[in-house]
Write a structure and sequence with these properties.
This is Knotted 1-binding protein. Residues 1-46 are annotated as: Disordered. This protein is mainly alpha-helical and 135 residues long. The chain has helices at residues 16-21, 26-129; strands spanning 3-6, 9-12. It is rod-shaped, with a radius of gyration of 53 Å. It starts with a strand and ends in a 6-residue tail after the last helix.
Length: 135
């Protein structure tokens, strides 16, 4: 096997299976360190992903609250608008009914006046046609 020079001493290069068996060798430690760095990178990436996911969840919650608020506001506005519409429609109906009732009253007065006039004209015609009859 090969020998490496380092820190004034020599050391033996081990097979990967030997490194697994002896975790305290220098190459094994560097593998552990590399694995730890990889795990830390994954954890950092996972933390970043968790942060990103948390931000998205916050956006969802915020949007849900906004939609809920808009729905409540919209319901209130439509209810108020509906009430105003109903009141206005009832008022318009009432105004038209009163107007038409007034027209009916005027027509009845006109009809009564016409009936009276017709009766007078009929009596006058009768008197003109029969001048000898005394009243």
């Amino acid at each position: 096997m090969e020998e490496e020079a380092g820190n004034g001493g020599s050391r033996k290069r081990m097979n990967p299976s030997d490194e697994e068996e002896k975790g305290d060798s220098r190459d094994g430690m560097s593998m552990d360190t590399a694995e730890n760095e990889e795990t830390e990178t994954k954890l950092v990436a996972s933390d970043e992903m968790e942060l990103h996911i948390a931000q998205i969840l916050d956006k969802i919650e915020s949007f849900t609250q906004t939609v809920s608020s808009l729905l409540d506001t919209g319901k209130t506005m439509f209810k108020e608008l509906s009430n105003e519409f109903e009141e206005r429609l009832i008022m318009i109906h009432k105004e038209y009914v009163e107007k038409w009732q007034e027209e009916i009253k005027e027509l009845r007065l006109l009809d009564a006046s016409n009936e009276e006039t017709t009766s007078l004209l009929h009596n006058a015609r009768f008197l003109i046609q029969n001048p000898n009859i005394e009243p």
